[in-house]
């Protein structure tokens, strides 16, 4: 076992996602069975009492890899020396709301947290934003952390990726592990685009195995509206699956992956998506660095959908600019 622990910050640690996330990190799901972890848990002051209870439960699990836990409501202190930061803490939407309706209330959180990471995180910090609207919150944090390289800010679209894999595997009656090269493009909102034309199942394009009408009228809307469907059914937004996807994303960013995965990353002009937003792309990760997969062929439908979801992100960016958040 290596001796120095990875310091990982989790914000909103007393919330629903936090309750699923912390125990998996502490058990080794994120950094592997050889790497000790130190948890740095940030909450707002009124939630510190509830967080105390969660910490008691973490203690009671006697996780061999958990080398320490620090808790607080001061972002600069909690983020001191952190190598990974999972920014989950933010209000979830309620039934009937869009995620973008949270921009003003949640966006502010990411000004202070971006600035605090800029001041006190470790030089190698990797930051993943789960709190909604995740892509634009990540943009706000990134803009407020000018000394941290831009590519260290990601947002979560892995939940959409996992949903898209699951729905396709179900339709075709195959295991999710047979679905390859699937990717979500764009924003974590209902404009997101899961591209089945470049997805492979048994070596064939997934789009050739299903009806085009099913892709357009059922599959894409089901994936895009899954978060809302869960809120309707559960009376609360997805939590265990969101925690699992947060682990998947940071796990792959940390450990590398040959598979194509969906990561929301700062745009660099790839596939004609203009710079200045954080958008989901097919990515691979090597040596701790993600790369947007290049050279994929996109048909006209895919190009239209990708442009439309990028436009949503540009509109969100313009809205937070107007609010003075970036
Ligand atoms: P929750 O309300 O159960 O928990 C949120 C926690 O964040 C609360 O404990 C709250 O006290 C804390 N918090 C609020 N402001 C904070 C701040 N400034 N600093 C630190 N902590 C703060 O919500 P949840 O179900 O855990 O969801 C959290 C966020 O994740 C929501 O915005 C939700 O919409 C989002 N989410 C995103 C995805 C995704 O795929 N990107 C999936 C599911 C949920
Ligand atoms: C999800 O996709 O489940 C989350 O973003 C929660 C939501 O508001 O849909």
TrEMBL record:
<dbReference type="InterPro" id="IPR001236">
    <property type="entry name" value="Lactate/malate_DH_N"/>
</dbReference>
<feature type="binding site">
    <location>
        <position position="113"/>
    </location>
    <ligand>
        <name>NAD(+)</name>
    </ligand>
</feature>
<dbReference type="GO" id="GO:0006108">
    <property type="term" value="P:malate metabolic process"/>
</dbReference>
<dbReference type="Pfam" id="PF00056">
    <property type="entry name" value="Ldh_1_N"/>
</dbReference>
<feature type="active site" description="Proton acceptor">
    <location>
        <position position="188"/>
    </location>
</feature>
<comment type="function">
    <text>Catalyzes the reversible oxidation of malate to oxaloacetate.</text>
</comment>
<feature type="domain" description="Lactate/malate dehydrogenase C-terminal">
    <location>
        <begin position="157"/>
        <end position="321"/>
    </location>
</feature>
<feature type="binding site">
    <location>
        <begin position="12"/>
        <end position="18"/>
    </location>
    <ligand>
        <name>NAD(+)</name>
    </ligand>
</feature>
<dbReference type="InterPro" id="IPR001557">
    <property type="entry name" value="L-lactate/malate_DH"/>
</dbReference>
<dbReference type="InterPro" id="IPR015955">
    <property type="entry name" value="Lactate_DH/Glyco_Ohase_4_C"/>
</dbReference>
<keyword id="KW-0560">Oxidoreductase</keyword>
<dbReference type="GO" id="GO:0006099">
    <property type="term" value="P:tricarboxylic acid cycle"/>
</dbReference>
<keyword id="KW-0520">NAD</keyword>
<dbReference type="GO" id="GO:0030060">
    <property type="term" value="F:L-malate dehydrogenase (NAD+) activity"/>
</dbReference>
<feature type="binding site">
    <location>
        <position position="132"/>
    </location>
    <ligand>
        <name>substrate</name>
    </ligand>
</feature>
<feature type="binding site">
    <location>
        <begin position="130"/>
        <end position="132"/>
    </location>
    <ligand>
        <name>NAD(+)</name>
    </ligand>
</feature>
<feature type="binding site">
    <location>
        <position position="106"/>
    </location>
    <ligand>
        <name>NAD(+)</name>
    </ligand>
</feature>
<dbReference type="Pfam" id="PF02866">
    <property type="entry name" value="Ldh_1_C"/>
</dbReference>
<dbReference type="InterPro" id="IPR036291">
    <property type="entry name" value="NAD(P)-bd_dom_sf"/>
</dbReference>
<feature type="binding site">
    <location>
        <position position="93"/>
    </location>
    <ligand>
        <name>substrate</name>
    </ligand>
</feature>
<protein>
    <recommendedName>
        <fullName>Malate dehydrogenase</fullName>
        <ecNumber>1.1.1.37</ecNumber>
    </recommendedName>
</protein>
<dbReference type="InterPro" id="IPR022383">
    <property type="entry name" value="Lactate/malate_DH_C"/>
</dbReference>
<feature type="binding site">
    <location>
        <position position="99"/>
    </location>
    <ligand>
        <name>substrate</name>
    </ligand>
</feature>
<feature type="binding site">
    <location>
        <position position="163"/>
    </location>
    <ligand>
        <name>substrate</name>
    </ligand>
</feature>
<keyword id="KW-0816">Tricarboxylic acid cycle</keyword>
<dbReference type="InterPro" id="IPR001252">
    <property type="entry name" value="Malate_DH_AS"/>
</dbReference>
<dbReference type="InterPro" id="IPR010945">
    <property type="entry name" value="Malate_DH_type2"/>
</dbReference>
<comment type="similarity">
    <text>Belongs to the LDH/MDH superfamily. MDH type 2 family.</text>
</comment>
<feature type="domain" description="Lactate/malate dehydrogenase N-terminal">
    <location>
        <begin position="6"/>
        <end position="150"/>
    </location>
</feature>
